[in-house]
């Protein structure tokens, strides 16, 4: 579970911004929206919605999650001299444009251990990387790495780390190497950041279709029968007119390959598109139900494709207790359906493993005390210098839980709304006489 995530000098984020999933003590409403430790030793929010005007930096915060995950997964394979790809400092200040980017994340691993992980990097190298954990109430060191210095390790790290350190390039994360070089004490935090932090920032139709293909392949595995059953239930509850999904195994004769295509490319396509999902609809004759017919995915609406892709992500997150980060969850979905999907995370029955949902939105109909606590609503705004800052509705004084959040937000009382002078939109688009 995510506790908090701090970002410094990344894209539109200049000064250190802390995005927290810890509840505010003075906020008492909707206690079911909080997950609690076995011994009441911690409390964490199950979901968070982020609002802000266009270009305020909502997506940049979510991209920071994605950048951190990318570096932990991919930097182990960076070659010497490769740039550290996610190095995108704040460019509107002469000083920060060449300073390091820094991410710091606090989280509970799947076994319940609390971790603190920090990375600081520039375009060419990792400047600092450390990982601490909490075997009890006090923080203990797993490792500390600084540029041009030997890695310091704690008592729980075995001597295998020396082999990893010896082959480590300056642009690679030490933790990233755990994907191929096992150090037992580092497996849990590595697994959390690579498998249980799920980020989805792209939201076009091609990406949705790719996700659908991924979930289609997963549904063919016997151990994932729950995914297909849950997708069927979601499609029915969403009133899409779809009875369910069917999985068809494609054969070579189902494709029309050009004569010029080479054998290796053909094999790759066949492997990637081995299975195809189809939707089942009721079939009628003269108003009488006579059976079912199947549609290809490309025959379905954009909203249905979005629901299939998003539904698969949500079902997997709930099953594994993941942190799911999505940009524009509500895109192409009906507001009532989006509400229902959010409530899956806030409901203990449907979210027994304490999965968390973090998403950005422009849909103000979701800005309601029926769904979110005040500390579950984050606003994003920019100052005069173009730097993003983030704050919770619970940070604003005098905001009672009974208020109409949507009404006050649209009036600009909470900030994070565009300043639009409608009179300046009086365009003269008629041709000159």
Mean pLDDT: 90
The percent range for helix content is: 25-40%
What is the architecture of the largest domain at the second tier of CATH? Answer: 3-Layer(aba) Sandwich
Radius of gyration: 24 Å
Which consecutive residue ranges, at least 5 long each, have pLDDT under 50? none
Looking at CATH, the homologous superfamily of the largest domain is: P-loop containing nucleotide triphosphate hydrolases
Number of helices: 9
CATH class of the largest domain: Alpha Beta
Instruction: Describe the largest sheet.
Output: 7 strands, antiparallel
Topology (SSEs and partners):
Elements: E1 2-8, E2 17-20, E3 34-36, E4 43-45, E5 47-52, H1 58-74, E6 101-108, E7 114-121, E8 126-134, E9 140-146, E10 152-153, H2 161-166, H3 184-195, E11 197-200, H4 205-219, H5 225-237, E12 242-249, H6 263-272, E13 275-285, E14 288-296, H7 302-320, E15 323-327, H8 335-346, E16 356-360, E17 377-382, E18 388-392, H9 405-410
Parallel strand pairs: 5-16, 5-17, 11-15, 15-16
Antiparallel strand pairs: 1-2, 1-6, 3-4, 6-7, 7-8, 8-9, 9-10, 12-13, 13-14, 17-18
Helix pairs in contact: 4-7, 5-7
